[in-house]
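User: Show me an example of a complex going from sequences to C-alpha cells.

Assistant: Sure. Here are the input components:
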Amino acid sequence: MTSIDPLNDFDIFDLGFVRDPFTTMDEIRESGCPIAHTERWGGSWFPTRYDDVVAMAQEHDLFTSREIIVVPPADPSNEGPYADVAAPPITSDPPEHHWHRRLILPFFSPQSVATFEDGTRELCNRLIDGFIESGQADAAADYAQQIPVRVIAAMLGVPADLSDTFTGWVRGVLETGLTNPEVRLEARLNILRYFEAQIADRKESPRENDLITTLLNAEVDGERVPESYVLGVCNLMLVAGVDTTWSAIGASLWHLAQHPEHCRQLVENPDLWSSAIEELLRAYAPVTMARIVDHDIEFQGCPMHAGDRVLMSFPAANRDPRQFENPDEVILDRERNRHVAFGAGIHRCAGSNLARLELRVALQTWLSRIPEFSLVDPESVTWAGGQVRGPRQCKVAF
Amino acid sequence: MRVRVDDDSCHGHQSCAIAAPEVFGADDYGNAVVLITGDIPDEFQAKVRRAEGNCPERAIVIED
C-alpha cells in the first residue's frame, strides 16, 4: 500500500500500487470523489467506478484515442520517417477508425483464431516438457511470457526464433519505456524498422494466407491502403498482443497456485472453463488504456480540459461492488459478469478472441499436466504495472 | 422467449456466444448474430439470460 494521497496524488507506477492496486482503487472509488486526479507523469484523471469507465469508453468523440499512453511521448521529430506511424485502430478516431478496424477484424473473429488452437496447445506442452521433470518453474517467465509472442509471430508470419527479441522490444514500449520516452522511442523504432523490412519482403514476394500481404493488397474506396497503415497494424499486433495476454495468463496461474480448490473444480468440471476464463479476466484485467479529452467539459463534477489525459482503469471498473457482487472474490461460475477487461465501445480489444483462446489453452494445458502446484514464496513474486499489470517472476513448485 | 442483438450497441465482445453458444454466434467481423430467430427452446433459456447478464454493452434484448 502506498503512503501517498490516493485522491490527489496517486501514482500508477508506485511499486506499492503495482503490487496491490486494488486497495487504492477501492479507496478512491468509495470516496466522495471516485474520479481521482494526479499531477504525476504529466497529469491524468483516474475513474474507478464501472459506470463512469464504461460511459467514457462509449463516449469516443469526447474521450479520444489520439494518445493511449499516460506519459506523453518524446518529441515526434525524433522519429524521422516514422512520426506518422501509429497503432491503428487502437490509436484511431472516427471516421478513419471504422476502416482501420474493419480491415483487421476478420483475422480475429472466433472462427479465424480457432485455427491457432492446436498450435498453441502444442507450444504449451513443449514449454511444460522443458520444466516438468524439475518439479518447479517460473510460471510467468518460463511459461506465460513464452506463449503470446509466438502465437502473434505465427499470425504475422514472422520467425518465432526472434521471440526473445520481440519480447524485449514490447517491454521497451510498455514496461521500461512507459516512464522513459527515450527507451520507448528506441524500442518503437526497432519494431517499426523490423516490420518495414517485412513489408518490403511481402511486396517482393507476396505470400498466400498472409496477414501482411492481405493488408498490403486491401483497398478502401477503390484505393490501396497506405503502407503506414499496414506498418501501424503490425506495430499494434506486436505491442498489444504480447504483454497483455502474457500478463493475464501469469496472473491467472498466480491465482490458481493459491487456490487448489479452483484447480480441482476446473479439472473435475470442464464445463466451468467458459465462465472461469471470463471471471479470471475480470479479476485480473491487465490493461489500462489512456484517452485524451477532446474539449473542456464537466464530467461527473470533474472540470476536464481539452488535452487532459484520462486513465481508463478497466481493472478498477471490474472490482466495483455496484456492478459485481463480492468483487474481490473469484467466483468461477459467476452468473452476471459484464466485465470490461477488453474495454467497451468502438475500441473493444480487437484481439479479445485470440487472447481468450490463449488464456484458456494455456491454463487447460497446465492443469492437465500439473493439476496441483503452489507458490514457492509469495513474497518473491514480482509484478509489472502501470498500464499493463501482471507477474513477471512467479516461482511455483509441483 | 425470443432474443435479438442491438447491432448499434454490439461491439463484438462475444460474451453472449461464450454463455450461450447454441443461440449466439459471430459474423465475419466477430459481431454477434442470433442463431435461433424464433422461440428459444426451454433448455437454452437460462443460458440466454446468462448471455444477457454478461454483455458489457447491454446489447442483448430478451423478449419474453
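The lines above are the inputs; the final block is the predicted structure for all two components together. The interface with chain A takes residues 11-15, 17-19, 26-30, 50, 53-58 of chain B (CB under 8 Å).
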